[in-house]
């Protein structure tokens, strides 16, 4: 597994619950609870009658383009956002890639697997993990940043990210969680005025489709063509294409917008509960704007282990470059679940 500086770049939240037999309350994986909804499951199931034919992505591609007001040639459908990171690493000729951390580790892992030497820009806790564009080397010809960033839950201003654009540079913005932000404010998905911009979107988080693998890239047509040439034939299955088309339609966009406001309210409830642990040394990164919260507390590894004994799985933070063993990431769930977790956290901290 790609590692660097003691960080296992291929450790993800699903590892926290993979072998638990469903006994743990999952606060480690950032997939929205109670998904996919029944209407989406039925829509996907209806596509199974067409499995004898090769997948045809034209309708789904057009639907994604229409959702963002872009021409279809600026859209590439992928088997989840993770495939897009592999395509970027393998298809594009870059000399000095830079990844802004802490963030989702798969972009760096994919770059390293493709033989690239990766430079890191480490954002600092004392700055609220906010982006300082001046920290990115001028010589970087590929810059990767998440927005809102996993695991910090920081939402960077769109104009600050756009200021990283340079002639001859690709600016890759991972917006996998942007549809969980009310109004998708600070999104760059529909911008065509930023040179070298590549925006990645995932449909697996909000819609609970991690097992189906569906996402997409928004970029200049020449970049889309370069990435498409690196894909195998028929990279996205017929059921995944059906899901993509459904998840960018008006009904789904409205449902996601409603869910984003609910997540924001549930996150505020969680943050209020976490505030009472400040005397125990707990600090929250942020301000948090995503469907998860990053916290720092003494003896986090022991607290995490105790939480498992109490029935709750949370994401360890020490696999993210820029973080250490005192960090934990908590997925936002409904208030009843959060209240149960806070009671368990009280016992775990006391222990």
TrEMBL record:
<dbReference type="InterPro" id="IPR015421">
    <property type="entry name" value="PyrdxlP-dep_Trfase_major"/>
</dbReference>
<keyword id="KW-0032">Aminotransferase</keyword>
<dbReference type="InterPro" id="IPR004839">
    <property type="entry name" value="Aminotransferase_I/II_large"/>
</dbReference>
<dbReference type="GO" id="GO:0016829">
    <property type="term" value="F:lyase activity"/>
</dbReference>
<dbReference type="InterPro" id="IPR004838">
    <property type="entry name" value="NHTrfase_class1_PyrdxlP-BS"/>
</dbReference>
<keyword id="KW-0663">Pyridoxal phosphate</keyword>
<keyword id="KW-0808">Transferase</keyword>
<dbReference type="Pfam" id="PF00155">
    <property type="entry name" value="Aminotran_1_2"/>
</dbReference>
<keyword id="KW-0456">Lyase</keyword>
<dbReference type="InterPro" id="IPR015424">
    <property type="entry name" value="PyrdxlP-dep_Trfase"/>
</dbReference>
<protein>
    <recommendedName>
        <fullName>Aminotransferase</fullName>
        <ecNumber>2.6.1.-</ecNumber>
    </recommendedName>
</protein>
<dbReference type="GO" id="GO:0008483">
    <property type="term" value="F:transaminase activity"/>
</dbReference>
<dbReference type="GO" id="GO:0030170">
    <property type="term" value="F:pyridoxal phosphate binding"/>
</dbReference>
<comment type="similarity">
    <text>Belongs to the class-I pyridoxal-phosphate-dependent aminotransferase family.</text>
</comment>
<feature type="domain" description="Aminotransferase class I/classII large">
    <location>
        <begin position="25"/>
        <end position="345"/>
    </location>
</feature>
<dbReference type="InterPro" id="IPR015422">
    <property type="entry name" value="PyrdxlP-dep_Trfase_small"/>
</dbReference>
């Amino acid at each position: 597994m790609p590692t660097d500086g003691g960080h296992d770049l291929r450790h993800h939240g699903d590892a926290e619950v993979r072998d638990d037999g469903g006994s743990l309350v999952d606060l480690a994986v950032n997939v929205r609870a109670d998904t996919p909804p029944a209407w989406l499951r039925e829509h996907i199931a209806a596509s199974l009658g067409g499995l004898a034919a090769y997948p045809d992505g034209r309708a789904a591609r057009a639907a994604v383009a229409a959702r963002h007001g872009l021409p279809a040639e600026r859209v590439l459908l992928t088997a989840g956002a993770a495939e897009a990171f592999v395509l970027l690493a393998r298809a594009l000729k870059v000399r000095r890639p830079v990844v802004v951390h802490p963030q989702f580790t798969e972009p760096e892992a994919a770059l390293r697997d493709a033989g690239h030497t990766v430079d890191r820009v480490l954002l600092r806790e004392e700055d609220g993990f906010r982006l300082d564009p001046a920290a990115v080397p001028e010589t970087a010809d590929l810059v990767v940043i998440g927005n809102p960033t996993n695991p910090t839950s920081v939402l960077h201003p769109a104009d600050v990210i756009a200021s990283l654009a340079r002639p001859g540079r690709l600016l890759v913005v991972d917006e996998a969680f942007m549809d969980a932000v009310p109004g998708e404010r600070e999104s760059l998905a529909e911008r065509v005025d930023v040179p070298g911009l590549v925006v990645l979107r995932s449909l697996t988080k909000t819609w609970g489709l991690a097992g189906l693998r569906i996402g997409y890239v928004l970029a200049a047509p020449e970049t889309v063509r370069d990435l498409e040439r690196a894909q195998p034939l028929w990279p996205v299955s017929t059921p995944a294409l059906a899901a993509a088309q459904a998840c960018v339609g008006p009904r789904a966009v409205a449902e996601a917008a409603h869910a984003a406001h609910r997540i924001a309210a549930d996150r505020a409830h969680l943050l209020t509960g976490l505030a009472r642990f400040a005397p125990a040394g707990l600090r929250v990164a942020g301000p948090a704007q995503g469907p998860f919260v990053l916290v720092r507390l003494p003896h986090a590894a022991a607290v995490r282990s105790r939480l498992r004994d109490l029935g709750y799985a949370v994401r360890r933070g020490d696999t993210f470059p820029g973080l250490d063993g005192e960090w934990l990431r908590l997925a936002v769930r409904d208030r009843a679940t959060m209240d149960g977790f806070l009671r368990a956290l009280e016992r775990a901290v006391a222990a």
